Amino acid sequence: MIEVRNLVKRYGNHVAVDHLSFTIPDGQIFGFLGPNGAGKSTTMNLMTGYLGATEGDVLVDGHAISQEPETVKRSIGYLPEIPPLYPDMVVEEYLLFAAHLKRIPKQEREEQVMQVMEMTGTESVSGRLIRNLSKGYRQRVGLAQALLGFPRVLILDEPTVGLDPKQILEIRTLIRRLSKEHTIILSSHILSEIQEMCDHLLIIHHGKQVAAGAADALERELTGDPALHLTLRAPEARAKALLGGLPGISSVTPCPAETPGCASFRLEQASGHDVREALFYACARANLPILELRQDRVTLEDLFLQLTAEEPAAPHPSKGGASA
Questions:
Q1: Pairing label, strands 76-79, 153-157
Q2: For the domain 2-221, what is the CATH superfamily, name and number?
Q3: Which of 136-140, 264-268, 307-311 has the lowest mean pLDDT?
Q4: Within 13 Å of residue 68, how many CA atoms lie on the same side as its CB?
Q5: In 10 A of CB 169, how many CB atoms?
Q6: Please, what is the Cα angle at 148 between 96 and 42, to 5 degrees?
Q7: Which letter does DSSP use for residue 106 in this model?
Q8: Which class for 301: exposed (0-12), middle (13-18), buried (19 or more C-beta within 10 A)?
Q9: Strand ranges for the chain from DSSP E
Q10: Mapping DSSP to helix (H, G, I), strand (E, B) and coil, where does residue 291 land?
Q11: What is the mean pLDDT of residues 101-106?
């Protein structure tokens, strides 16, 4: 298990990470979301020990990175946004060099390199110069070096950035396969990617946590009692009279109907009510066919934009006023 406790990183007067605390159970794919400059990469660098924290600590299986940095670092494989590759090396040579840097015993290096190349699908390019590889294969080679030593935790910062759609699908498939044996921490700007791949997500803004949980649970929490969008084949006046008399519906608002002879409405439900079943039977009894009925739920994109909306800047003090 990974525990992040009250993590803070300051650069002078700028607070890049502001008292973050969270826990990641074993076997999860954990997603970081946030706009540019939110503190995602800084948090990942603190978790890997690449940067030192101003305050707080990171624990992996009870080992604090501030007290036992070597032990914690052996448990973590890291793929930064720009993979740490040497373009003038061939793939196998580079991975052997990375294995040496990670202090993998000499007698185990070749076998481990072969294993991680097989896991990442890079055997076919093992003898090629890294500079001649596609972006997708470079990401795979970067992931292979993160897997050396077979760490229990993989931290992947924007692993699909700059890839074409086919390469993105390949990397996603690889990450899902790796998640069966590794805890994975993943950052991305692609909301659909986080929603599709991650068991749990953390949204940060200006270095602070603004939301955490499973994507569908966060959507439900912010949506509350969702409004309904209804389209009936019926005259608007008749349909509105029927809907206004149903218990559990607090307001009926007509909307433009795209189909002639139909009426569309936005229905607000009273707190704690789900009127869909009663609505179906009422329309059936009145012989008013329902053409569409859908809930107006908050999407992950709506949630992200709502939680990371910029706050208005504080007004500058006037020339005659006191300054802080």
A1: parallel
A2: P-loop containing nucleotide triphosphate hydrolases (3.40.50.300)
A3: 307-311
A4: 11
A5: 12
A6: 115
A7: H
A8: exposed
A9: 2-11, 14-24, 29-33, 55-60, 63-64, 76-79, 153-157, 183-187, 200-205, 208-213, 227-232, 249-255, 263-269, 290-296
A10: strand
A11: 93
- The tokens describing 97, both together, are 């060099």
Separation of CA 167 from chain center: 19
Residue 257, both tokens: 């109907």
Q: What is the C-alpha end-to-end distance of the chain, expressed in Å? A: 43
Give yes or no for a contact between 6 and 24, defined as CB atoms under 8 angstroms apart. Answer: no
Name the residue with higher pLDDT: 191 or 21. 21
Q: For residue 311, give the 3-state DSSP assignment.
A: coil
Q: Are β-strands 263-269 and 227-232 bridged in parallel, bridged antiparallel, or unpaired?
A: antiparallel
Helix (H) or strand (E) holding 139: helix 135-147
Backbone angles phi, psi at 20, to 5 degrees: -85, 135
Residues 176 and 161: their CA atoms lie apart, in Å, by 17
CB 212 within 8 A of CB 4: no
pLDDT tier for residue 242 given thresholds of 50, 70 and 90: very high
- What topology is assigned to 224-306 in CATH? Alpha-Beta Plaits (3.30.70)
Residues of the chain with CATH 3.30.70.260: 224-306
Mean pLDDT taken over the chain? 86
Domain with CATH 3.40.50.300 in the chain: 2-221
